[in-house]
Amino acid sequence: MDQQFASDNYAGLCPEAWQAMAEANAGHAPAYGDDPWTARAADRFRALFGTECEVFFVFNGTAANALALAALCQSYHSVICAEAAHVETDECGAPEFFSNGSKLLVAPASGGRLTPHAIRTLATARGDIHYPKPRAVTITQPTETGEVYSLAEIRAIAAECRALGLRLHMDGARFANACASLGCSPAEMTWQAGVDVLCFGGTKNGMAVGEAVIFFNRALAEDFDYRCKQAGQLASKMRFLAAPWVGMLESGAWLRNAAHGNACARDFAAMLDGIPGVAPMFPVQSNAVFLQAPPAVLEGLKERGWRFYTFIGGGARFMFAWDARPERMRALADDLRALAAGAICQG
Ligand SMILES: *Cc1c(COP(=O)(O)O)cnc(C)c1O
């Protein structure tokens, strides 16, 4: 099919990930992560973050988030998240399931961003035995609507977490886009700011499949390998989850891909300037553009074959992946312009 912007998951594999998969396919290797690719990928992450973190590879983001949160909590604990958080809205209860019942406590949050105040309000609302005890906070970076927490915001949240005895998890399904957006190092955005565990997304970054769960607080990683196995997330041919990370991290593609997606989102938003009734709903800070547009315009886009989601963020969402092409973006913008003009004539 022609290139679409419904999701960064519509894109294929980037050449660096594909090449590493081909190299990993050159012969036999030990199973279940006991292979040179898995060791090399974990070492690459330790070099990237500049610290002795514990690294695990799982198949997808739902598993990464759910298992990481389960590792932070007992079943009688609770996890504070934003109301728009993927863990709350798009994981079919997996965090509650894998933690044997840890409850998600949902905070109202503009742009999907939690604040220290919102965290404190929820964490201190109840201190009695009848309510699940707050134990962790999860933030999504970038948020579900494509906004990015600043380093100062993350540090302030982490400080509040420490004061309240809460652990801090980061859902980084598009972590690379946040790094490219802020121009900071992965270390600054995570352990140096006080993040205990990060889910680093590979799929949306240009791999076929796979996310890395990275524990900066290494004590929290105890028995995490067993947790992964029990959850059906231990790949027997682990080298094919690990090798693409080697390709992405050693070539720098992880950051290049993200920077390209972010630049495309900015360019696309600029192409919409002056189209009546059509405007971005949120600041464009990563690879997402959410559009407010008249219903007739969105209907018209669908008739012209464009695909997009409207259930996230309340507008039409367009995501720009590592391979987003300017001419397809231009075609979408041209269709939006024509449809918006038509909607005005009819109105
Ligand atoms: C895509 C995404 C995930 C992971 O989703 P899977 O489909 O389970 O891989 C997690 N969090 C956020 C914010 C996402 O956008």
Automatic annotation (TrEMBL):
Catalysis performed (reactions): L-allo-threonine = acetaldehyde + glycine; L-threonine = acetaldehyde + glycine
Q: Name one GO molecular function term.
A: L-allo-threonine aldolase activity
Domain of life from the UniProt record:
Bacteria
Please state what class of enzyme this protein is: lyase
What's in the keyword line of the UniProt record?
Answer: Lyase, Pyridoxal phosphate
List, in alphabetical order, the GO biological process terms annotated in this UniProt record.
L-threonine catabolic process
Q: Which cofactor does it need?
A: pyridoxal 5'-phosphate
UniProt domain Aromatic amino acid beta-eliminating lyase/threonine aldolase: residue ranges = 4-292
What EC number(s) does this enzyme carry? 4.1.2.48
Q: How does it assemble?
A: Homotetramer.
Q: What is the similarity comment for this entry?
A: Belongs to the threonine aldolase family.
Function per UniProt: Catalyzes the cleavage of L-allo-threonine and L-threonine to glycine and acetaldehyde.
Q: What is this protein called?
A: L-threonine aldolase
Origin organism of this chain? Teichococcus aestuarii
Q: What is the lineage of its organism?
A: Bacteria, Pseudomonadati, Pseudomonadota, Alphaproteobacteria, Acetobacterales
